[in-house]
Write a structure and sequence with these properties.
- The complex is a heterodimer of chains A (about 400) and B (about 270).
- Chain A is an alpha/beta fold and about 400 residues long.
- Chain A has two domains: about 5-250, P-loop containing nucleotide triphosphate hydrolases (Rossmann fold, 3-Layer(aba) Sandwich), CATH 3.40.50.300; about 255-390, Coagulation Factor XIII, Chain A, domain 1.
- Chain A has helices spanning about 25-35, 75-80, 115-125, 130-140, 155-170, 185-200, 215-220, 240-250, 385-390; strands at about 5-15, 45-60, 60-65, 90-95, 95-100, 175-180, 205-210, 225-230, 230-235, 255, 265-275, 285, 290-300, 310-315, 320-325, 340-345, 355-365, 370-380.
- In chain A, the strands form four sheets. A six-stranded mixed β-sheet of chain A has the order 5-6-7-3-8-9, sandwiched between helices.
- In chain A, strand 14 and strand 15 (about 320-325) form a beta hairpin.
- Chain B has about 270 residues and is mostly helical.
- The chains are: A alpha/beta (about 400), B mainly alpha (about 270).
- The interface between A and B is large, with 46 and 35 residues.
- Strand 4 (about 90-95) of chain A pairs antiparallel with strand 1 of chain B, so a sheet runs across the interface.
Chain lengths: ~400, ~270
């Protein structure tokens, strides 16, 4: 087997200082040029998203790219896809490359399914002839033949995703780069997509896939590259690396205390997660016990009616739910009482899927809210019947009431 | 096929072959923009005719009847329309091209394709609009019983000049726009203010002779005069002006392509 991807010392840095403003103002640059005409712009604060990453991938190999959020997976994918340039290093790719960082790029809501297949196919690098040849196959795979001439804005989200994936699935690259796109559609369609991925491998194509779902990675990939803090932490046999990755565990943050001092009459002392069961904490919270998020606050002065919002996100970035302190009142906002107080928000037992979660909260600030992103992190673990919840599919795993009648 | 990814140093390579290979995508993007424009409209493509026609009617009324500007012995409607043709092309194609990179930012951060395709597709849309308007002009000239002379053969050259200028300015603006969002305010300014300084609603014969050369540094002056000269035979062709406008446009195009290629590698990072 020959190496089709050879990466040597790939690095990528971003400037942190400049990114505080979303974009530059021309005026600032001109004023700056007059003030210090000969000074070269020095990056204020350099952040290495990738540092000296080297690896090789042989032909017909399916390689998984794993790592925590911010480990550099997306950056590496973007460099491999030629969306962005590395700062240092070199990558050799032998063969036709297709990258799928998202399905349905270029889909236009006003255009029909048929029109979007052609447009999206062209964006993915297919020729008109190639698309025409595969058109029927694509439509059949997506199961939308009845709605072919309906604008996609009228599609259900499931249909939309199926069509988008169907186009992507009919690419015939030598090297395919995929980012988490498998996490779409219902579970039957996901199975179909996984099957398609295996076909791609058996056709002798090379695949690099990024996923947070270790079950997917271990079933698809022979080999895994584990990125941590922009470096290759380990690479090798998929099962062994995944075990190592999972056992290392992820650091959880159960308590947040603001570092910014008091901004208004509203003060956060802390926001913390408490388990309803005695065993919660260190390793994660058991799925069968409630989890409490406790907001310890003080209201120092008269403060306009408002609310605290809590957003729960999965570690793939999906917003799972938003809950507010006004939910108890059935109003959008509520009045505040003066003094120190605690709001307690209970996430019921048997509700969350095992996995890792992030909590984003808001801080009321007069007439609007300040958003504090991902201040808390915690894991939910399955105890006892390990396979039950994980394997069900879906975003949440509540225990619903089942009753039996008629016997 | 062998691709090498490494940091680019020095002057950008043009790699126009890559753009040529992606010409089908260019066509698809232009086709998308045209199709989407007339989706869910009741009269559809008719809008392509109505818009330039109404502008022409208003212009000839305001400037010909109310302001009574000289019409160089041709119907004022024809005088304005021959100028509106290249001007409308410039104004819409430039505005669209300038916005092409930022407007398609979501694609740039998700997939690779030759970035030059984006502003070029906008220009292609403009060309289609231009051809539609041109049909109206033909009907107008038949209606007024005006026959073009051999000079009409020079028309494609003046349109080519217009094209060079529009692409050049569009490339500069679209790549600057990625980093400097000031362009959002500058683009409508160029298309609005530009119309008053270019001889769209009036004949350039009202500009004093001593300012003629300076005035021709604006390539659109040369283009519009060229259109009138080749279609109506009214305006005298001012040769130093033609040279000045052509040189300006070509310089703009060459530097524009290089600036675009030079900056495109950071598009996804600063977007």
């Amino acid at each position: 087997m020959s190496d089709v991807i050879i990466a040597e010392g790939v690095s990528k840095s971003y400037r942190l200082g400049e990114q505080t403003t979303a974009y530059n103002l021309l005026r600032e640059r001109i004023v700056q040029a007059f003030k210090t005409p000969f000074a070269r712009q020095q990056p204020v604060n350099q952040f290495w998203a990738l540092k000296d990453v080297s690896f090789t991938v042989s032909s017909a190999e399916v390689v998984g790219l794993i790592g925590k959020n911010g480990a550099g997976k997306s950056t590496l994918l973007k460099i491999l896809s030629r969306i962005t340039e590395p700062a240092e290093g070199r990558i050799d790719l032998h063969g036709k490359v297709s990258s799928l960082l998202e399905v349905g790029i270029g889909f236009h809501p006003e255009l029909s399914g048929r029109e979007n297949v052609y447009l999206n196919g062209a964006i993915l690098g297919m020729s008109r002839r190639e698309i025409r040849r595969k058109f029927d196959e694509i439509v059949e795979f997506a199961e939308i033949s009845k709605f072919l001439d309906t604008p996609v804005k009228r599609y259900s989200s499931g249909m939309y995703v199926r069509l988008a994936f169907a186009v992507a699935a009919h690419l015939e690259p030598d090297i395919l780069i995929v980012d988490e796109v498998l996490a779409v559609g219902d579970s039957a369609f996901q199975q179909k997509c996984l099957g398609k991925m295996r076909d791609i491998r058996s056709e002798g194509r090379t695949v690099i896939v990024v996923s947070h779902n270790m079950a997917t990675v271990s079933s698809l990939c022979q080999r895994v590259i584990w990125l941590a803090d922009g470096k290759v932490k380990a690479a090798g046999d998929a099962q062994a690396i995944i075990r190592q990755y999972l056992s290392e565990g992820v650091k959880n943050d159960f308590v947040w205390t603001p570092r910014h001092g008091i901004l208004s009459a509203f003060e956060y002392h802390s926001v913390s997660i408490e388990s309803g069961s005695a065993s919660g904490g260190g390793e994660g919270f058991p799925a069968n016990a409630p989890i409490d998020v406790v907001f310890d606050i003080s209201i120092h002065d008269k403060f306009p009616a408002g609310r605290i919002e809590m957003r729960l996100q999965t570690d793939s970035g999906d917003l799972l739910l938003t809950s507010t302190s006004a939910d108890a009142t059935s109003q959008a906002n509520h009045e505040w009482k003066r003094g120190r107080q605690q709001f307690r928000c209970r996430i019921p037992a048997d509700f969350l899927m095992p996995g890792r979660y992030f909590i984003t909260i808001t801080e009321p600030y007069g007439s609007y809210d300040i958003v504090r992103e991902n201040v808390l992190t915690f894991s939910v673990t399955e105890e006892g019947s390990l396979s039950a919840r994980d394997q069900r599919g879906g975003k949440i795993a509540p225990r619903l009431q089942w009753t039996l009648t008629g016997t | 096929m062998h691709t090498i990814i490494k940091p680019r140093r020095g002057l950008a390579r043009l790699n126009l072959a890559e753009v040529w290979q992606a010409r089908e995508l260019l066509g698809f993007l232009a086709w998308r923009d045209i199709t989407v424009r007339y989706k869910q409209t009741s009269i559809g493509v008719l809008w392509a005719f109505i818009r330039p026609f109404l502008t022409m009617v208003i212009f000839s009324f305001v400037f010909g009847r109310i302001a009574k500007l000289p019409s160089d012995h041709v119907p004022y409607a024809v005088l304005t329309f021959t100028a509106l043709l290249p001007w409308q092309f410039f104004a819409t194609a430039f505005a669209e091209a300038a916005n092409a990179v930022v407007g398609n930012g979501y694609m740039i951060t998700k997939i690779y394709f030759p970035r030059l395709i984006l502003p070029m597709a906008s220009i292609a849309v403009g060309i289609v609009d231009f051809l539609v308007s041109f049909v109206i002009l033909i009907f107008m000239m038949i209606g007024y019983r005006m026959l073009p002379t051999w000079r009409v053969l020079a028309l494609p050259l003046f349109f080519a000049l217009c094209l060079v200028f529009t692409i050049g300015l569009g490339l500069w603006t679209s790549s600057l726009y990625v980093k400097y969002r000031d362009m959002r305010h500058l683009i409508p300014f160029v298309t609005q203010f530009g119309m008053y300084v270019s001889p769209v609603a009036f004949s350039s014969s009202i500009v004093p002779a001593k300012w003629r050369f300076l005035y021709s540094l604006n390539p659109m002056v040369v283009v519009i005069d060229g259109f009138r000269w080749s279609l109506l035979g009214t305006t005298q062709l001012y040769v130093p002006g033609v040279v000045a406008g052509t040189v300006t446009s070509i310089m703009l195009l060459v530097t524009g392509v290089y600036y675009f290629k030079q900056t495109e590698r950071v598009f996804a990072d600063v977007m």
